[in-house]
Amino acid sequence: MSDLTHIDNEGRANMVDVSGKQVTLRTATARSLVYLPDVVLEKLVNGDIQTKKGAVFQTAIIAGIMAAKKTSELIPLCHPLPMDNCKVHIHLNEENEVEITCTATVTAKTGIEMEALTGASMAALTIYDMCKAMSHDIVIKETRLLEKTGGKSDLRREQQD
Question: Per the domain annotation, does 128 fall within a domain?
Fold first, then answer.
C-alpha cells in the first residue's frame, strides 16, 4: 500500500503530510471534451450558446473557476490551497467538440492538478446542464491532466494524446 500516498501503512485514509516540502510556484492544466449533437451546435452564435438559463460557455467558465476554488471541499483528502490564478477557456476544436481547458496556479507546498481537473469537469457538467433541454445525447468524453509544473516532477502531454 505504500505506493498510494493517501493510504497509511495500516490501510487507512489520510491527508498527505506536506510540512517538509518546499513552497514553489505550481501550475496545472486539465482538459475536458464535450460532444454536443447538431441540434445543440446549431444554437452556437458568436462563440456561445444562448439558452433560457443564459450564455452557456460564459456560465461554464464561471462554474469551473468556482469549482476549482472549492476542490478541497469536494475531494476529501485534498489540501485547501490559496489559488493565485485560475483560467478556464472554452472553444470548439477541429472535431466540433467543445474543448474546455482549466489552468490553475498556486505558490504552495503541494500541487494544484486536482483544482484544474475539478474546474474543467465542472465546466463540462455545466454545459451538460444548460443544454440538456435540447438533447440528452450530450457526452462528456474525457477529462485529463495535460500539464503540471513546479513540484517533484513535471508532466507535459501532447493535447492530441
Answer: yes
Integer CA distances (angstroms), 148 to 6, 49, 67, 72, 78, in order:
19, 31, 19, 18, 16
Residue 58's nearest CA partner among 67, 66, 49 is 49
pLDDT in tens, 7-49: 878 888 888 889 888 999 999 999 999 999 999 999 998 999 9
Q: Of 129, 137, 154, 161, which is the active-site residue?
A: 129
The reply to whether 19 falls in a domain is: no
Range of the domain at 90: 24-150
Would 9 be classed as within a structural domain? no
Is 129 in the active site? yes
